[in-house]
Model the fold of this input.
Amino acid sequence: GAVVSQHPSRVICKSGTSVKIECRSLDFQATTMFWYRQFPKQSLMLMATSNEGSKATYEQGVEKDKFLINHASLTLSTLTVTSAHPEDSSFYICSARGGATTDTQYFGPGTRLTVL
Amino acid sequence: AQSVTQLGSHVSVSEGALVLLRCNYSSSVPPYLFWYVQYPNQGLQLLLKYTTGATLVKGINGFEAEFKKSETSFHLTKPSAHMSDAAEYFCAVSGAGGFKTIFGAGTRLFVKA
Done:
C-alpha cells in the first residue's frame, strides 16, 4: 500500500517552454501533497504544500507564478514549470499524505527535468 | 520549531559490519521521527518511523532505530551491512496535527567489499 507515482520520470525541454509533472497516489486518498526540489548531493527542499481543493501554500522564495501547483482531486496533483530556464533543471519529487497513515509522507520516484 | 541534524555526511563501513547513522532532532511538540532511504535517481523510500509507543522501531531491510527522548536522538542501525545498503539516508521529524516534515541533510552510506 501507499504507492505514489510520478510522470514523467525524465523530461528534456527547450528554454521558454512549460513542463507539467503529475503526481498520483495509487491506493489511498492524498489529502495533502508536497512538492520538493532536490539539487545534486543535497537534501530535499520543500517548494509547496497543497491540500485537495485548496490553493497551494508556497515556501518562502519559491515563485508561485513559475511553479504552478494544482491539487484537483484526492489522487492527483500537478506541478507545472512555466517558461522553464536552465536553472530550473533539477530533480523534482512529490509526496503524499492521507488515508490511514496521516502521519507519514510517501514519496514518488521523482522527475528529472533538464532544460536546454 | 523543529530541526534535524545528521552527524556525518558520509559513512563508510565494510560489508558485514555494523551500520550506525546518527540523527538528532529538536521539536517543540512530541516528535514523529522517520528514516528514509534514497537510491540514485529515485524517490525516497520509508525505512521506519516512530510516532508513539515502543521506542525501538524495526523497519525494512533489517534496519532499526531507537527513539531516545533524553538524548533527542533517533539513530539508525543495522547489525550487518550489505552492499545493497549503499545509498543516501535521510532522517526526518514532524509532529501530530499536520506539522511540516523537516529533513536532515542526509548521510551517504558506502559499503566496502
